[in-house]
Amino acid sequence: MIRVLICEDQALIRAGYATIFNAQPDMEVVGEAADGPAGLAAAEELQPDVIVMDIQMPLMDGIEVTRRLAGSGSANPAKILVITTFNVDEYVYAALRAGASGFLLKDAPPEELVNGVRTIARGESLLAPAVTRTLIGQFAERIRPADAASGDQPLAVLAPREREVLKLIAKGLSNKEIAAELVLSIETVKTYVSRILTKLDLRDRVQAVVLAYRTGLVAAHE
């Protein structure tokens, strides 16, 4: 069973999520929280498999909760699915950098929400290619200068082909699209992605995209 914690300040939405998840044969809602501190406490106490996190919550927003539960200083980073709307794009970028494993829009259909939780529970990231281009790319140039003091030095461990694959990931291509672009098999692309994550000590594809923009491997206008 996938144990889910729901962090959402609106009671009606919380109830809706709970109904959807509890109706699945492989999921159970183990807790709910209506504000940031309550979500932080519940996560530390219940140790859920996946946390469904709203960004805009009272007392402590979802970004800060995510940073504390899944940031670089976390001994056992939580798997967090951020739920948001397009009018808070910048906050989503911050949430991804804080350690979120992915995000969905609040108007996503129930089956997409359920599949998102399953994806993150498996240890994969949830970052739609189209959203990668329109969301992260939109803010990359504004955010990058403050992070790029070391240039692309972190990428020095990558082989040329691995850098090429990382660049395509950051541009929003799926494994299938990367395979077609580079004339490789999908399995070979998956191997490259796995090597990239291991060499750069990254948890998932989301972190790889963020790092590619931070180091300047990809620019927003590309």
Characterise this structure.
The chain is α/β, with parallel strands linked by helices. It folds into two domains: 2-126, Response regulator (Rossmann fold), CATH 3.40.50.2300; 141-214, Arc Repressor Mutant, subunit A, CATH 1.10.10. Helices cover 52% and strands 12% of the residues. The chain has helices at 11-22, 36-46, 62-70, 89-98, 110-121, 129-147, 160-170, 175-182, 186-199, 205-214; strands at 2-7, 27-33, 50-54, 80-84, 102-105. Strands 2-1-3-4-5 form a five-stranded parallel sheet, sandwiched between helices. Helix 3 (62-70) links the parallel strand 3 and strand 4. Helix 3 runs parallel beside helix 4 and helix 6 crosses helix 10 (205-214). The chain is globular. The mean pLDDT is 83. It comes from Amycolatopsis bartoniae. The modification 4-aspartylphosphate is found at residue 54.
